[in-house]
Amino acid sequence: MQRFSHFRLAILTALVGIILSLGISAFLYIQDNQRIRSQLSNDVTELQQEVNRQLQTHMFGLTWMARHSTRNQGDHDLWQREAPIVINSYPHFRCLLWLNSQFELESLYSTIAQPSVDQLLADQDYLDSLRGLEPGQRVMLPAGPLALNSADVALIAPLNTTQGTDYYLGIIDIEGLLRSTVARHMGRHVYFRLTSVSSNSTVFELGNNHDASQSWSGFSDFTLFDEQWRMELWPGQEQLQAMRSWVPLLIMLAGLITTALLTFVLYVLGISRVRAQELADTNIDLYVEIEERERVEKKMAYLAEHDWLTDLANRNALMERLEEFFSQSALTQQHVGALFIDLDNFKEVNDALGHSVGDQLLKRVATRLNKIAPKHACLARMGGDEYVLAIACLNDPEELENYARQVLSALDTHFYVDDYEMFISASIGIALSQPEIDTPESLIRNADTALYRAKESGRNSYHLYSEILHHELNQRMELMKRLRNAVEHDKLRVYYQPKVDMQSRRIIGAEALVRWQESDGQIIGPDQFIPIAEDTGLIIPISEFVLKTACKQLAAWHTLGFTELTMAVNLSGKQLQSPGLIEHIMEVVNESGIPPNKLELELTEQVFIENIQSHTNFMHAVRDRGIALAIDDFGIGYSSLSYLKHFPVTALKIDRSFVQDLPNDKDDATLTQTIINLAKSLEIDLVAEGVETEAQVDFLLDRDCSVGQGYLFSRPIPAHEFTQLLDDYQGQIPIQIM
């Protein structure tokens, strides 16, 4: 609608122009119709006058001839001589008759075949109408028997003579008279009708087209020879078109053309205004866009060197500042230091309270770190929950460690975010540059390496980078590469440690444990490669390999007749994040052919503490399918035992750290007794790990913990040795086997 407002004047002009043009044209058209009707009335009046004049003239010629004959005593020769003269002078006479007072034919002159005079003389009614005429009275009557056409009339002039009244008749070809008169005065496409008002009969009609007779008829009433006559005249379509004026059409065309021109001019002006407005709007938009682009460019330039969340320097800006610090330190013979700061357990904050709260916490941490940053320093956010504080002009590592302690102290005070009170700690990796050796990249890398060791040390601490640490990292990288190669080339083996009913010493199950055996026979313990596998994600293919191998081996033992054996397999917490895990486990179980209730999945206590909904769903799905669920290394986590009520746990495995000093250590004895009591009250099975002495067996049996595993019964052994153990002792465990 706003766009049409610019053309409102053009639209109004068009409407007004069209209405005025049509109105004026309609008015002129009506006026033209009135003019045509008036012209037709004038024409019929003129025609009537002309016809009347013609008849009067013919009557005059007839009367002259009659009087001339009377003065000459009825000279018949004179009549015959003058009759052709009269007919030639008055061409519409068909014939001339002279009747005496006795209605006897005295003389006749005709231009046509012999008229029916005898019929006339025999028509008494017609003769009686003649007798009633007064001498000197001139009348026009139908031609009667003398008519060749029904429209023919007779002009009658009675005159007194010495013998009485003679009657002179002139038969008029009225049709020819009217045709010639209309043609001479009106043209070809005009229609005519002569009506006797007295007798209400049509005397003559020219043409039979009555289409326009009602709308366009012009008429005139007149008296001729003592009779009332009506003459009507109307045009045909061609004549009507010829009579019409072109002025209404020209006026309408001129008005429409003028309207179109004015409308076009106003439309062009409207377009010009629109274009001008659009140009103005475009210029405004362009200025806004330019300003916005400049703002965006400034913002992009700012973001290219700053973190979008905390407004701290980002990695690019940090590296540039470090270049400056290194150049400066080269001149002053000082060091550049870096503190690589990583917030502890920040993921739990995000998971529990949401990312918006986590972002606010990151901003508040940045604010606190900024307050303790020295003058010649650069604080940057590297992404996630990692910060780097780069400091110039350092003389020794002690200064850098002092800043690390300040950071830990600054973060020690609680944070308030959206009504949440939170405590956060940090792990810090420290690196100090070595002149002419380190670069900004290597300094950050060394600090990151030291950070890894600080996290291993228990968090909320710092660690200074050293060459020893670098060497350990290289060893770890080498071990990681070798582990990947071992997974790809099937260098992993599954060993089995018996689970024993300590009362009967009967083997009731086994726990599948993975071992890494190199080509040279070297065995690498799980304590060395399992943490690396967890960090790199290799734990998932390793766990899948162990599960398939263990289920297949259990099926083989069942085939040998040991159908009561169960198999415990450890699952990694990372595996629980894999979609379709329960379907994969059931596929392995079904392929191996073992009963689901003979498989037990062991999860670490940390998985239960996290209490993630997906973990909970998985555990219930496992139990719904009949698979047992155990908590491995129970009691060593930072757990609230209330989670045991919410999970379908079937067994607790008492960690070896509580068993190894039994029965002498009172604390361990108390804790173990507590775990046993807890399991009994919840009706959960117990397995003691790390059983190595008979005293430990006695302690556990006295407290109703009857299932154990450990070196007292057997170390983890290959499948063929486990099979031999089953065969040799019929499922019993001799005490001396290690």
Automatic annotation (TrEMBL):
EC number from the UniProt entry: 3.1.4.52
Signal peptide boundaries: none
Annotated GO MF terms: cyclic-guanylate-specific phosphodiesterase activity
Domain EAL intervals: 476-730
Keyword Membrane: yes
Superkingdom of source: Bacteria
Domain (GGDEF): residue spans on this chain: 334-467
Membrane-traversing stretches: 6-30, 246-269
Keywords linked to the UniProt accession: c-di-GMP, Coiled coil, Membrane, Transmembrane, Transmembrane helix
Enzyme category, top tier: hydrolase
Coiled-coil regions, chain positions: 30-57
Entries under NCBIfam families matching the protein: GGDEF
Name of the protein described by the UniProt record: cyclic-guanylate-specific phosphodiesterase
Organism: Aliidiomarina soli
Lineage per the UniProt record: Bacteria, Pseudomonadati, Pseudomonadota, Gammaproteobacteria, Alteromonadales
